[in-house]
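Subject: Sanity check before I submit

Could someone independently write out the structure tokens for this chain? I want to compare against mine line by line before I put it in a report. The sequence has 424 residues.
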Amino acid sequence: MVEQTATLLEQYSVRMLDMLEWLSRYGADEQGGVTRLLYTREWIAAQEALCIYMKEQGLEAFYDQAGNLTGRLKGTNPELLPVITGSHIDTVICGGKYDGAYGVVAGILALAYLQQVHGSPARTIDVISLCEEEGSRFPLTYWGSGNIAGNYSMNRIPEVKDREGITLEEAMSEAGFGPDSPYRSCLRRWDRYIELHIEQGFVLERSQQQIGVVNGIVGQRRIRVSVSGESNHAGTTPMGWRRDSLAGAAEMISYIRRSALEMGDPLVATVGSLQPSPGVSNVIAGETVFTLDIRHIDRQMLDDYTDRVHQKLRKIAGQEGLDMSWEEHLNIDPVLMHPAIINDLQRIGEMAGISYRLMPSGAGHDAQVLGSQRPAGMIFVPSRQGISHNPLEYTAAEDLMQGFRILTEWLYQYAYRGDRHETL
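---
Independent answer below. Compare away.
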């Protein structure tokens, strides 16, 4: 019986690999990557395909007003709050096939396997394909999990637009969601959340560990810095009389890099976008806008460094005769994963003979949003060369299968066995 169960689990693992390839066709782009932006045709088609697949696996499938898609394996004890797993299927532009999608696909098949082998759990298990995490189309992140956690509300939809001027509310309505849609409220109650994800870094690969047990997720500050000077002729304006916004921004960016290096790991600070205007060779840039992404596992250190940079950039602007605006559009605090879940995952790894390491997540995940409300945990699998958000994103089949095995075991123990911790 044990051998048959192990064989069946391996069969589900193989199905998971095939399903990841299948899902990557939705939004496949010419560069060999995957582009599925929130509420676009490609994203809608992928969610609907997953909805059909969930039903075929015997799960109850339903949407909420934001567009989160849930597959439910109903428990026999209605007094127990559900345990949730899942991730997201939205991508960056020309992203990889594993980021987010792995956690959704693995969650669906874990529930299908558990139902086939063990029937109904005592505690309901939900797998959710969250409707947005990346923030690639609109300048906001965690829209899906944020609505579940109550950080966002259908009564106060953020007034943000995409690159084509389409508002979030317009896109959501066009996709069939929103406060006037027939779907259920986003708010829900749950007991615990666990997310399976690729590492998106190279720590596991370089340390030759099979699994990462995440102990915390870094906090993030994302800022839009606008530097204003004066556009003028590049040939007739003396150097000493210029109000060159690009030159000022360059000095600011150099300071950001130097100060981050001085502070040291695990702080990271990144300027990922730089847009001088008018952006032509013979005109001094009158305005320059750049983005700033700051991350740290300790909230106080994150706040202190952010304040320090803010003050220094204003000082540079004043010295150069420039104006500066500082617009913070993301403020997410670090979130520690729950100690009991961490201990469970370590023990499962040890019992299965799977090597693991405790590690923080330098990338943001839905687990930090849901983990700010209820206990949460995360499982990482290695990423080849640490590459992610890229068509070259890759995780070996064996590593994907090991992550699936750990997730399935944890769900079994918690939803079927409670604190008795019997193995599959």
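---
OP: Matches mine. For the report I'm noting this point. The two ends are 11 Å apart (CA to CA).
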